[in-house]
Amino acid sequence: MTSVAPHRDSIPALLRRIDRHAPLPRTALLGIALLVVVAGGGRIVIPITIQYALDHALLTDTTPAARSRIVFAAVGVGVAAVLAAMLSSSLVNRRLIRIVEQVLFRLRAAAFSRILRRDPADRGTDSGDLVARVTNDLDMVTVYAQSGGVTVVQNICQMVLALAVMAVYSWPLALLVLIIGTLVPIAGRRLQRLVARRFDAVRVRIGELYAGLLELLLGIDTIRGYGIEERMRESAERRIDAVLTAQRRTLWPVGFNMSVGEWASGLITTSVIVVGTAAGIGPLHASAGDIVAFLFLATFFVRPMQFAVTSLADARNAEAGLRRVATVLDAPISSRTPRHTALPSGAASVELAGVTFGYVPERLALGPVNLRIRAGEHVAVVGETGCGKSTFAKLITRQLLPSHGRVALWDNDTADIDGGVLARRVTIVPQDPFLFDRSIEDNIALGRDGASREAVLDVLDRLGLREWIDHLPDGLRTVVGRRGEALSAGERQLVALARTALTDPDLLVLDEATSGVDAATDVRLQRALAHLTSGRTTITIAHRLHSAEMADRILVFHAGRIVEDGPHEQLSAAGGRYARLHAAWAPDTADDPRGELIG
């Protein structure tokens, strides 16, 4: 899915958005501001001491002793000012970098938290793009904030102090410097907006590159299996070329902007020399020391401006990254505020009233569906591929929210149920369960906070899986590998079922958790499922009719709707869609009752 450039608002508005999620320590910043003034003031003292030494000692008639005394005094004051500026600047750097790290830590944590709490209806951002936003984009902010950002803070103070002291020496010259200095950002305003838009495009292209590379890595086995490495390499290169093109398009406006900064710097220096010299022989009567001091002060004003212009690219890059992070932080986490933190005890009842859902607007994948499942009932859902079975399961478990209508558990709208409560009471076991790269024990223990080893072993005993665990080389300590690749598909499903049993849900949704396994593993799975489904409401998304036969009730889906509803015997005798599916399945599975139904 193509990423979109984030909404553009002003930088103060952007910082206010960030401050809501990672508040800035204002008291600490006030202390830093005072240190910045001391650091800037220490530098500004140097031109003043030079002017004093020139006008009162070096360029005037006085005794050698007096001249030496004045020069040494000026040098002493200058050295003290430089030391104070160095110490203050060092403290500013250390404290500001510490604050930046703290704020960025909170931002990163808030972004990850927001991703975990995303609204189920929010499917607009690729996983790879989200990874780019909380890693690469924030890294751009970190690099700029710790280097250019810290320097900019000190430079702004230095420019203000230099301009104020210049005004004391000669307000006409100070006004001239201010006018020329102001013309630079005004003249480059449109250029800066162009640079900002193009850096937004760069960050978007990088997000798309991350998304493509993540997809490539996750699908590497499929790519190799079909021999399409060359085609995928070309696709990756196109994304890399798109990043390169976007970055190149930022170079000429950035380069031109730097030239403008150099031009303005030269113009200010030349103007001060020409006008200052004229002032020295004219009615303003500026001394040689005044002009030299003014040139130093003008340099203190120009250099920060030059730095600001040359670091514009880094600043705009960091701004673009910060906007993308802010988009993640401002993403909706829920369309409604949960009202129920407690639910009735016991097995869940399920009700869908006028429920419709579409992954794409104006194109329904499911519905309308009207259905009620009694507490403790075991319901199987069958139908061909794309008929809406898995969408139905995700709506019940609130992985998706309905486009219209109401999904209720225990007679409470799922949108009103607290997420933590729902997770403890409702569990879905998918066809290909996700396992973390940890031990089997750790993966099972995720089913309950603070679960002990004894609790894990007790669950395995109840499900009849202890013998299987004991035969593994490292038992419970067996590391499953990335996404569980060290285990077979059936073994991953056994771990998922044990994790679910530890959760002890009141509503269990099985997205055909017993498909694609060998006979021996299937025996273990069926035994575990018999214990797991006892006494709780169970919905099985059946991709094979053997699973459907064991249910109390069967729902037959077709084109997103329920077309048949009843027990196996009734639907088989009715001669409808289920009977035809069963008749087509039975002859092909006479030797293997675990044979699968397409879909």
Automatic annotation (TrEMBL):
Top-level taxon of the source organism: Bacteria
Membrane topology: Multi-pass membrane protein
Domain ABC transporter residue range list: 350-584
Molecular function via GO: ABC-type transporter activity; ATP binding; ATP hydrolysis activity; ATPase-coupled lipid transmembrane transporter activity
Transmembrane segments: 27-50, 70-92, 169-188
GO cellular component: plasma membrane
The ABC transmembrane type-1 domain, residue ranges: 30-317
Keywords from the UniProt entry: ATP-binding, Cell inner membrane, Cell membrane, Membrane, Nucleotide-binding, Translocase, Transmembrane, Transmembrane helix, Transport
InterPro entries recorded: AAA+_ATPase (IPR003593), ABC1_TM_dom (IPR011527), ABC1_TM_sf (IPR036640), ABC_transporter-like_ATP-bd (IPR003439), ABC_transporter-like_CS (IPR017871), P-loop_NTPase (IPR027417), Type_1_exporter (IPR039421)
Subcellular location, record wording: Cell inner membrane
Protein name according to UniProt: RTX-I toxin determinant B
Organism name: Nocardia africana
Gene of this entry: apxIB
